[in-house]
Structures are given as structure tokens and as C-alpha cells.
Fold these 4 entries.
Entry 1:
Amino acid sequence: MTHTYNVTGMTCSGCQAKVQGLLSKVAGVKNVSIDLSKGEATIEMDKHVATAELKVALKDYPKYQLSENNHRPLAAVAEVEETESKSWMVTYKPILLIFAYIAGITLLVEGMQGAFVWMRWMNHFMAGFFLFFSFFKLLNLKGFAESYSMYDIVAKRWSAWGYIYAFIELALGTAFLTGYNLVLTNIVTFIVMLVSIVGVLQSVLNKKIIKCACLGDVFNLPMSTITIVEDGLMIGMSGLMLLNML
């Protein structure tokens, strides 16, 4: 069963992630989708959950007030989801452009070396990837950490991990760029991204409608196979570079 509720007090995507996270922890709640612009929460339940129980989940944050909303038909929710599914290119344009920029710039740099070396190009690509993505996360570190805690298996249990993770990406990007201890850098990359992809896979396979935190709090990107490809690419590249160096 699915119900829609009004939620007041949400002013940014950080608020959106916080409310979504709190409501998702209520027993019986299967999935929570927040429409920030309309101030609404659409909640899918395994069993009926009383409105009072949902309000209790928000009690530590009194600025968020939840109330019943019976006027919005579920067909409208389906219509919104259908419209969103048709605009895949528009939805993922930011991340596709970033990948294109990183690939284009690093290919150009490699082309200027006289001979194309795949390992060197991957090293530059990963430097660009981590530096670009850490930049967007650091624009609103709190918003990223709250969104990340919605699905990452570590951040769910330890909220500080979201804050640390952004700086880990920055450090990895700097290490790849400067060529600092590439064996250690690739080992850390492989482990960190392997842990990261677990939560992404769980969310996508369970078809949860969750905001992807890969570009921080700047763009509202839904979790999808794009996120799996993004993490998988870093795992694959770091693994290949390790095999080549060891």
C-alpha cells in the first residue's frame, strides 16, 4: 500500500534527505519518496503504518511536521514517475557531461605524450574523476553526508563517514594526479569503491527511489544503474592498475 503525506519545514535537499532517512527507519515502511517542491512524502508500506508513528519518527526535528494528504490520487504519482522515466537523458545530463569532460581532457593529455599508454591514461582519468566528484560533494558537505547516509552501508551506521568520504575522494584524486604511492592509492580506491557499490546495488535492486549523492547536493540525480557503472568503473580501473603494478 502507498500513501501520500504533507510534510512542512523542508527547505533544501538536505532536509529532503533527512526526512526521507527518518521515515525510512519506521517499521513497515518499504520505500519513501520526497517531493521537495510540493512538500509531500509518498510512502510505500509492507503493512499499514499509523500516521502517529510517522510523526514520532520526526519528533526530534520539530520543524518537520507531517500530516495526512488524501486528495492526491496514486495515479498522479505514477504519472510523475512515468514522466521522469522518459527524460533519462535530461536527468543524467550533468553526470554524462562530467564523464565526457574528464575522458576528453585526459585523452587529449595522453595524446600529447607521443605514445598512448593505457595505464597512464587510467591514472589521469581517475585523478579527474575523484577531483571533480569531491568538488561537488564539498560544495555542500552536510547535504551530501545526509543523502549518502540514505543508502551507503557504512554511512547508515556511522554518519561521520559521509563527511570523511568526500575528503577521501579529494585525497585519492590528488594522489593519482601527483603519482603518489600508486600501489597504496589503488588499493585504497579498490576497497573504498567496493564498499560503496554494495549500498548502491542494494538500493537499485530493491528499486528504492533514492537520490544519488555522487554529485553531492548540487544535482538531484536518482539512484540507478548509472551509479553502479560509475562505481564499477573505478573498481575495474584500480584493479587493472594493481595487476599491472604487482
Entry 2:
Amino acid sequence: MKRVKEINLFIITLMAAITLSACGGGAKQTEETSQTDATEVSAKSVAQYPIPTSFEVTKMLNKAGASYILSLNNPVENVDKYFTLKSRALNLGVYGANLSYASTYQMKQETMNYFNVAKRLIDDLQITTAFNAKFAERVQANIDNKDSLIHIISQSFYDTYQFLMSNGKDNVSLLVMGGSWVEGLYITTQIASITKDNTDFIKIIASQKDPLNNLMELMAKSESDQMVAEVIALLKPLQDVFAGVTTDSLSKEQIEKITQLATSIREEIIKG
């Protein structure tokens, strides 16, 4: 767990450094000042964020040379189906991963589309924080600046997590994290299944064993909550398969089973 926190802290610090070095002059100077303040908050909050964010997964996909595939995302129109607390929280995580995916690949229209549905679910869940109050303005002002945009969206993830944990909504926070993690795994398995040389993508999949174990450990502390218990039951077969993963490579059977489970779990989540 400590290692995960250290990695997350390093990543957010690096993103902040890139963001600040990219800013300069006029309107960007104002954004730089606000991001400096936000970075200080990030350094504190990211150390408490328990698993890698979807940004880290999509950055690995980008680095490995994967193409952006829009059809892998949860369609934005599905947001109209999410009325329950459970479906809204899980799919805020899913759409957050889609937002990470689109912005990492600098897909501007898709970034705005997924930003809008994520913001709608944030509002539906009444996650009212000082940072999220200006979230829309920050995203729109930095839509052409990839590094700034990634920093802003990441900070919203951490800020949302902090809000939920500080307001006795640990269960909601766990559902958001669960939805985001599942979507990241789903996207990765789908890309791996259509890529001829998928060695790098298999390594990314194998690396998700520890984050899943960390997530399940956290959920176990709140399993008295029915919503969390249902998600634990949903993820348990996947955890059982990952228990047999001991290296950064996977057998054909493991790949097939993880892909199958990631798809079925994700379908269960996004159906509402």
C-alpha cells in the first residue's frame, strides 16, 4: 500500500511540474496560480488515494502504442439510465475512466462529452466541493492543453474522494473507485484481444492484481453496506483468477478468463 501511495505521489508531482512549466503569460498565468494552490492539495490528497487512478492505466496504454477506440467507452446516452445511488456511483467511476482515456489521447470532443456526463453524476450525487464548483470552467479553459487538463481532471478525482471520505460516504467512494478500475481493465483487455503483439498490454493487465486486492481489502471493511457487498460478490471471481497470476505474463487461459469476467462485470455495471 505504501508503495502505491509513493507511486501516485510521484506521478501527480510530475504532472504538476509539467503543467506549471507549460503555462505562461496572460490568462494562463491565472490558471498557473490556481493550479499551484491545487497542487498543494493534490500532494496531500493523492497520498491518501488507495489505488492507481484510471489515468495511470490509460497512460500505460498510450505509451504502449494502443490506438484510441471510441466504441470501447460507455455511451454518454446511458447516463439517463442511472437513477440509483449505486448505479450513479459506479458509473461516475466508469465515465471518469472514459474521461481519462479521451483526454490522455487528446480527443477534444470526446473529452467534453465525457466531462459533461461525469459532471452530471457528480451533481446527482451532490458532491459539492470548492474545486468541483469551478471544474467546468477549468476544463473548458484548458481543453487544448493536455498536461493542464490531465492535472485538472486528476485533481477532481482526488477532491471527490476526499469529499466522500470526509462526509461519511465511504461506500460511495468505494463504488466510484470500483467502477473506474473495472472500466480501465475492460478497455485494456479489449485492446489486448485485438492486438497481434499484445505483450505490453498483457503486462498492464497482470499489473492490476495488486490494485484489485487493495480495492477488495478496502471494500471488505464496508461489506455491511449492501451496495458494497454486491460489488464485492461481482469482483470476487476476478480476484480468484488474479490470485493465480505470479508474473507479468499470463497464460492463454488466464487472459481469456480475465477478459470474459471484465466484460461481464462491466456489462452488469453499465446496464444501470
Entry 3:
Amino acid sequence: MSESGKINLKGLTREELVGHLAGIGKERYRADQIIRWLYLQRVTEIERMSNLSRSCRERLESFAYIGQIECLREQIAQDGTRKYLFRLNDGHTIETVLIGDKSRLTLCLSTQVGCRMGCSFCLTGRSGFERQLSAAEIVDQVIQVAEIIDAGGAARGAITNIVLMGMGEPLDNLEEVIKALEIMKYADGLQFSSRRITLSTCGLAPQIIELGQRLEVSLAISLNAAYDTLRSQLMPINRRYNLATLMAACRSYPHTNQRRITFEYILFAGLNDSLDDARRLVELIGSLPAKINLIPFNEHPELSFKKPQQKQITDFMEYLQRHNLTVMTRRSKGADISAACGQLREAVGGKSQ
């Protein structure tokens, strides 16, 4: 809440909106009208919702408002990736990344200010954890970037895919993330289908199970090691939910041949890139319908990890392919503007000035 305790309309699901409207004596179909105004017309003032009566708008304004996050900066990488720095109403900042690839425009969303998972290779967690993002702040990243695109300030075309791989651990903010994704999927709103949305997690096993029970989206697991000792070293969450627990949760997650679980495996030179590591990975995945994204580490002066040599990457990939795993080597984009995997963080000094 903000604006003297009012509710941000962008954070309400359809049913929540229906409930609030019922409380002021307004019909259910008004919720559909408001959703179209918010996400198709992208209005910024309730007063502009012209097919609502004046009395309805006045009653709506008595408890609600249309909030906006503010774009402070856009950076463009050599490969065309764009990174946006947004200021939230309390002064904190988050980063959102737009990635162009052939016919797709993928928007990488943040779900927290900072992160508390503490992965040793990720700069976001080094900034510490400040707070959760609201559903409205998650959804508004999509709206604001769409506005920038429409104004000619970014790549041509509409956003085609959503990935929750920005700042924060999405499943550590489960309720607000589920609300935001439900809102994004409205056919009369932002219109993203389940197959166009991917949520990436470091491995909160109980929340993976709950997500699969409540919402249909693609799942990506940040794996990075195939045995517990190394994974616990890289990712402290593994001490709470080890690989056996994580894989059991993955096997419970609804999947089809069209929606296999993606395992993201960052390759670190001399650490997890040997053929023994590849063998362990094959054994870990087993018969689970999955695909592997190999991601050579994005080197950064603040971190001691190194990227493997190309031969090491190729040998690792070919071993997985020989054992019938679907594998892609992903070249992370935007590294020259710190927009690549694990490089997003809040503006220096916490709250932006």
C-alpha cells in the first residue's frame, strides 16, 4: 500500500478486484473493464477509465490508485541487451533486463530487492536483502518496459517471454509472485501464456511443490553441481534442501514433453567442469524429462571464479549429449553492462539518490 494507505490496482488479481468492487456496490464485470484499462490501455489515472461512471471512479479512487515504478536509467550492451534501473516508491532500486534473440523479446524480472540465498557466485546476494517486491511492482516492470518499447526507446516488437531470473529468489516471495504471474496471464490483460513464462529457483523444494499445485508455468532450476558437497559450497540453500530432496520435488512438478524442467548449470573452471562432473549430472537427472542449459561463468572482478576453456565446455556438452540429454550452451548476454546472470544488484549505496 501507498498513497495514504490506498491499494495499488496493479497488485490485485481479478477476484480480489471483484471483491473490492462488491464492497462499494459495483458489478463484477467492472473488474474486467479495469483490467483492460490497466494492462491493454496502460492508463495511469483512474479518471481516464471513461467507460466507468463518474460515481464508480470516485468510489474507486477512495481506496485505490494506479502506482508506477520510475525508470531512472537505461543501459544498452554491445549485443543489444538492455538493462533498466527502476526506482520504487520507497527509494529502493531494482534492475530489469530485456533480451532480444531472433524473433523473441524476453524480459527478465526481479522479485526482491536484493536476495538472501547467498550463492557464492552471484553479485545480487552480496548487496544483502532489503525487502520483497509486491505483485504490483513485479507486474509494473512489464508495463513500464512495454511503454518504453512503444515509445521507440527499445527493440522493436512486443515482449514475447517472461523469465523470473532477475534480482531475488522468486520462491522466497511465493505469494506475491503467484499473484503477479496470475495477473500477467489474463487473456484480457498482458496475455502471457503459461509456456511463455519461466520461473527460475535455486531450489526451495517445498515451494516448488506448492508452485506446481497452484500455477502452470515452466520451471528452471539453478543447479550448478551434481553432488551435495560442492553444491552446498556454492549454494547454501543445498544445506537445507539437498539434491535428493530437490530432485524429488522436481519429479513431482507437472511436466510434459513440451514443458520439461530446465536445469541451469554454470560451468566454473576447475570446479564443476570435468567429465566426472558430467557423469554425476547424467546420473542425477536420470529419466526425468529435462533439458540442460550450460552457462559458462560470467567473470567479474569481485569474484574469483573463472570461465572454463572452450574445449572443456565442448567436452562436457558432448558427454551429456552422448548420454541422451538435451543440452544447450547458453551465452549470457549483456555482460559488458553487468546485465548477465548473477550480475544484477541494487544501485550502489542502497537507495538511489
Entry 4:
Amino acid sequence: MKSGLTLGIETSCDETAAAVIKEGREILSNVVLSQIDIHQKYGGVVPEIASRHHIEAIFPVIHEALAGAGVDLAEIEVIAVTYGPGLVGSLLVGVAAAKSLAFATGKPLVGVNHIEGHIYANFLTGREIQPPLVCLTVSGGHTDLLLIPRLGEYEILGRTRDDAAGEAFDKVARVLGLPYPGGPQIEKLARGGDPNAIEFPRGLLASEDYGFSFSGLKTAALNYLNEAKQKKQEVPLADFAASFQWAIIDVLTQKLMAAAESFGVRQVILSGGVAANGSFREHVAAQAAQRGMELLYPPVYLCTDNAAMIGSAGYFRYLAGQRSDYTLNAVANLRLGDE
């Protein structure tokens, strides 16, 4: 059946998600069941708890996505599922569900790299994407700077050598006593703060490559808080949050712009959860405009984990003739290019 409909399934972390996508670009339904309320009491995602809740939710969420799109499973042309990277227990739930549906219906199965899914969230905005381009994917687990010479081809220009940007946000927010996830909480706290009030380090900013390092920044921020506590000094929270956030935004933007200029691209893309940060978007947009470049990024609800992006990426892989067999398995540390 050539319906152009893809059922996307995403369970890489703590969101159980399913979506129906038409021809890789149109969202017919996009259901995301978040476990944030469950994990907030622990200050972060507990893998065993996350996988247990995925097991309970996966098929109800899939049924809701199909019903929301007004289609049944027989009308789906291809089934796409995240198989890595992520929490292995969570990934296994989605992969098992996708394989069982594919086997029962005879539908083609396509495994999708979660990071590639974030990139393809930009295909769901209605804007035209024209390689070659440079993409910065920034989330709680990943900070990857990529050159995309052609759709489906990726050259890794630089990655974080330690903490990802989103991970640094979450860890510092936890010490501040802010709820999980920490990135949006720090962004909110930073409003009205002075981003130049505290001089935090910029890891690898002066390096000649495109690598990232946020461990030193995280440590400096925690040391600042501990020193203030020992001296019984009040921390100017808005200034602290604004300065910490700016240290991350500054490095990310400078590296992205340097890569875009070096490779002479006219489009740059943001993807991943940190791409939802309004201050980050605004600064990159201003820098791109100064250089005559076009900036693309998904709406906020497509920056965080969702199945619509997996459905889009899976459909274009399917059109390229790529298929997965029933030996498809979860790969927790999967990287782009490993497929």
C-alpha cells in the first residue's frame, strides 16, 4: 500500500510517543506521554522506572496516535522506531512493539537513530531544507556539530568530550533545587539577570577544532555556589543563571558560526531539547542574520523527544530503500554514521 503514512514510535528516555506522519512532512497525530511528574521526585530519570512505564503505555499511546490521525494500522505504509541512542531498557520497549506490529501486519520496519530524528524535526516545519548545511544538535545527552553534505549523510565535525550542554543545565539546576528538567528552569530564572555578572569558563572555545566541553563550566558553577554557601553569602540567582546560560550559548554559537563560515553553507539548523531555549535561538538567529545565513529550528514541542520526528526520518530512510529486519535491537550508545 502506497499511502505515504508512517507510524513513528519513540521510547529512548522517559517519553512514550507515537505519531502518524504523511509523506515525511505532515503531522496527522503526535502523542507524547511524559513521565516528568514521575521522575521529578528523584531529580532525574530512573531507567528501571522509565522502562516499566513504557511497557504499560506503549500500545495505548500507539492506538491513540492512530485514532487521532483517523487511520487504522492497515493504512500505515511503514513503521519507524528509535533504536538508539538512549536508555537501553526504554529503547527495547519501543523496538519490541514496532517489531511485533511489523511482523503481525507485514509492514516494512525502519530503525531510526534518535539524533537523526531530531534533525528531521525541521522537515515538519514546512520550510525547505537545502544541503549542504551545518546542524547543531544539543540535548541532555548529546552536543553534536554536524556537516550535512546531502540528506542522510553526516560528517561529525565536533562532539562534547564530557558533559553535554543539556546535562550541564540539569546538574546545576539540581544543585539549585530546581525541578527536573533543569534547562527550562534555568532559562526562566535567568530572565532579568545579567549574563556578564559572573565570568564562567568557556571550555575549548579557543581550540582549533569543533569539540565541546562543559564539565569545567559545570564544576566552576558548582564551586561558585559552594563557596558562597561557605561564606554565607547570598547568591544573586538571576545573575548566576543568566551568566551560566550565557557561557553555554556563547560557546555553542561561536562554534556553530565558525563551522558554517568554514564550509560556506547558507543554512544552519538547530535541533534537540536545548534548541527550545529562547535566548539561544535569538542569539543564533542574530549571528546567522549578520552573516547572511538562514537559521532553521523546530517549534518547541518538536525540540524535545517526540515520535513525529522519528516518523519523518524513518519515511525518508524508507524512500531511500533502507529497511530493518527482525534482528533490529536497541543500541544504547548508537552514533550517527554507525548504521
